[in-house]
Design goal:
binds zinc ion
Length: about 425
């Protein structure tokens, strides 16, 4: 595993690669060209995503003082143009939401899949949330708008109007007791095209058994996503290079997914569109978060406990320090585990205050060739040994407690199961 070679690919991907944009498309073309340089044919598979555009957001406190604030409507927010009484609804507990119908409310937390149903029921006319930290410097940070994702918002007939402010401004509204706001949001739903890059190396001895690698190539708004996840993308290419030169016993699929940051859309599309292949897939090795110079190695098994034990024993024997556990991990591994394929996410967790994700501070400055090599060596060692195994040392089965967590994660109701 060549750290410098991986670092040079991270450098090539050092730009914003947001779902369904030219940036994501450019990344897919760079990765495809890298695959083809290794003599491995790669395809770009496109899929449609639901998106949104907010063309105007205005927010003005009208009582007990008058002041305008910069604000950003959530993508796929409802539109509004109204002056409304404003209530501070804290964390949106039942007691906070009992009398907010038709009013604007301030929430401490963003609007997401956890609180959306309760908010729809309470029916405020507008929800104000915050982004960042009171100590953010304006010239160093962005006002990220958030999104009412179709996965939770489209289950309801009504759509909330939801707006983000900087935390410092949101705190000012709270501390100065703002009681009335004029708010305008002009929002419309759109559709976009996102893409996965896929490559395949057929197995020499057990071609019908497939080991599938995933790494998402997209980033979030304002973020160059060098740590999350140009690094995982580069590691996956380096591992593919090894197997292109040293043909594996089992078949190997490599997927650089798009729109992971929008709710695992690329991998969810893939497992639906390629059900036959997924049925023959015995393991998913997912690479999401790596390369941060300061951090530690981790592995999360979204699958049977025997796989966790097998991996942990191997790492100790090989002299790697890896924090290993069985759990779900918010990444493309969930799409595979949901289809009954045991998954392992291998990565490097950044040290606090020395690494950043999901904002503009996720830059190449915090990524190193040495750190890339560490995670790559672990994933490579594991992949090589599991490919050499006479049979998979674990059952192709997801334990009940993990299935339950996946259902919760994917917002599946108990009654919809099976
Ligand atoms: Zn990620």
């Amino acid at each position: 595993m060549d750290g410098e070679r991986m670092f040079s690919l991270v450098k090539k991907l050092d730009f914003v690669r947001l779902s369904g944009t030219q940036g994501e498309k450019r990344a897919s073309e760079i990765i495809r060209a890298e695959c083809e340089r290794l003599g491995v044919n790669a395809d770009i598979e496109t899929f449609a995503t639901l998106d949104g555009v907010v063309s105007e957001t205005k927010l003005e406190v009208t009582a007990p003082y008058i002041k305008s604030y910069s604000a950003a409507g959530y993508l796929r927010s409802a539109s509004i143009d109204a002056e409304l009484p404003l209530v501070y609804a804290e964390d949106g507990l039942e007691g906070n939401l009992c009398d907010v119908r038709g009013k604007a409310i301030i929430l401490n937390n963003p609007v997401n899949k956890k609180n959306y149903a309760a908010l729809i029921k309470a029916a405020p006319a507008c929800v104000l949330t915050g982004d960042g930290d009171c100590f953010d410097r304006e010239d160093e940070s962005d006002l990220a708008p958030g999104m009412l994702r179709p996965s939770f918002a489209d289950a309801f007939e009504e759509r909330l109007c939801t707006v983000t402010l900087r935390k410092r401004d949101l705190f000012e509204l709270i501390s100065r007791g703002a009681s009335s706001v004029r708010v305008k949001v002009v929002s419309r739903d759109t559709e976009n095209t996102s893409r996965n890059v896929t490559a395949f190396i057929p197995g020499g001895e057990l071609p019908q058994e497939i080991i599938c690698f995933t790494a998402h190539m997209d980033s979030v708004r304002f973020s160059h996503g060098c740590y999350d996840n140009a690094s995982g993308s580069a590691i996956m290419l380096e591992i593919m290079r090894h197997f292109a030169l040293n043909p594996p016993r089992r078949s190997m699929r490599f997927i650089w997914t798009g729109s992971e940051e929008r709710g695992l859309l690329g991998s969810r599309y893939y497992v639906e569109a390629h059900a036959d292949e997924v049925a023959r897939t015995c393991l998913n090795i997912n690479l999401d978060l790596a390369g941060c110079a300061a951090g530690h190695e981790f592995a999360i098994v979204t699958g049977p406990k025997e796989l966790t034990a097998y991996f942990d024993e191997m790492m100790k024997r090989e002299g790697f320090a890896v924090e290993t556990k069985t759990d779900i991990y918010s990444s493309d591994c969930v799409s595979y585990a949901d289809k009954g394929v045991p998954a392992i996410s291998i990565g490097r967790a950044g040290a606090r205050g020395m690494s950043y994700i999901h904002d503009r501070r996720d830059t190449i400055d915090f990524v190193s060739a040495a750190a890339l090599k560490k995670t790559a060596s672990i994933a490579y060692t594991f992949a090589r040994q599991i490919d050499a195994a006479s049979e998979m040392p674990f059952e192709r089965k997801i334990p009940e407690d993990i299935v339950k967590k996946i259902d919760e994660y994917l917002l599946r109701k108990e009654t919809n199961k099976k």
